[in-house]
Specification:
By secondary structure, the chain is mainly α. Helices cover about 80% and strands about 0% of the residues. The chain is built from 16 helices and no strands. Helix 14 packs antiparallel against helix 16. The longest helix is centred in the middle third of the chain and has 29 residues, at about 145-175.
Length: about 300
């Protein structure tokens, strides 16, 4: 088993690869975010449906409450990311969203304000985190001088906040359920909720006027085909990430490797000779700062 855990980096690298694919695919497929999110949720729901025949449902109500809240946030996150991929491309998405752990860092204080004393008791590490936050702000100010980057930042900033909050409810759901059934039922229920709420959002946004037209839209040949591919990327992303977390000694290592998604996108663009808009170098500095932040924060002793 020790030998197997040495290879945690293999599923971690695949996690970063599938994340790059998920964030970039709709740049070329051009599906509405609601349609792509619908298929992302429905496929997970269908594939994991047999779980109900083999594993008992978690018993604690907090599991279902936390799963529901995380899933509603997930609907918003997926739709906005998939729409942003269509408008701005996957490169800038992977770079901006690399800042999500920093947002989670601040949000966590709202749940556990006593952590402030923990950070004060470790001044050198806390000073390192503060320095990185200042540098991130300076880089973001630089990115705002480019109109293309500014529009992407404004579009994705609410998503960053939601991505920062959602893992806290995810963790709460896992804390109130058995390990295996908790993970599988979480993904299964989340898939169903995302599919349902994406379909409802489709109607509320006026993309279709009724349920019948909604089903006609999502089952159009192109939407079905491309939506399934995007859904598979999302499913593989969840699977490899969960596998990597199960093998690694400290989850922070997976989070660091996951930031390679920004590099995969750049390499893909070079391969197809696609010239990316915006300030790419400053975006890569954000990724580097996010990696340093994760590495330093993991050294804090709670």
């Amino acid at each position: 088993m020790v030998f197997i855990t040495l290879f945690w980096w293999i599923p971690a690298i695949f996690t970063s690869l599938f994340q790059a694919c998920y964030h970039t695919a709709n740049q070329f497929y051009k599906l509405d975010g609601t349609v792509a999110a619908f298929w992302r949720g429905l496929l997970c729901f269908i594939i994991l449906a047999p779980t109900i025949f083999f594993l008992p449902f978690p018993k604690e109500p907090l599991f279902y409450i936390s799963t529901f809240i995380a899933s509603v946030l997930g609907v918003y996150i997926d739709i906005r990311i998939l729409d942003a991929a269509k408008d701005f491309g996957g490169g800038i998405i992977t770079r901006i969203l690399s800042l999500a752990p920093i947002i989670t860092f601040f949000v966590w204080f709202g749940f556990k304000p006593g952590l402030i004393a923990t950070y004060f008791s470790q001044p050198l590490l806390s000073l390192g985190l503060l320095s990185i936050i200042v540098l991130v702000i300076l880089v973001l100010l630089r990115l705002r001088t480019c109109e293309y980057n500014r529009k992407a930042l404004l579009s994705l900033f609410p998503v960053l906040i939601c991505i920062g909050v959602a893992p806290l409810f995810n963790k709460n759901a896992m804390d109130h359920s058995p390990v295996l059934s908790g993970v599988l039922y979480y993904i299964w229920l989340q898939g169903g909720i995302i599919a349902l709420f994406s379909f409802i959002t489709m109607i509320l946004r006026g993309e279709v006027s009724n349920i019948s037209m909604g089903f006609s839209l999502v089952f159009q040949k192109q939407n079905l085909y491309y939506g399934t591919i995007i859904a598979l990327f999302a499913l593989f992303l969840l699977g490899t990430k969960s596998f990597a977390f199960s093998l690694v000694e400290h989850p922070v290592y997976v989070s660091i490797v996951q930031r390679l998604s920004a590099i995969w996108v750049i390499l893909f663009y070079r391969l197809i000779q696609h010239e990316e808009k915006g300030d790419v170098r400053s975006g890569l500095v954000l990724v580097l700062l996010a990696v340093l932040f994760i590495a330093i924060e993991s050294q804090i002793k709670y």
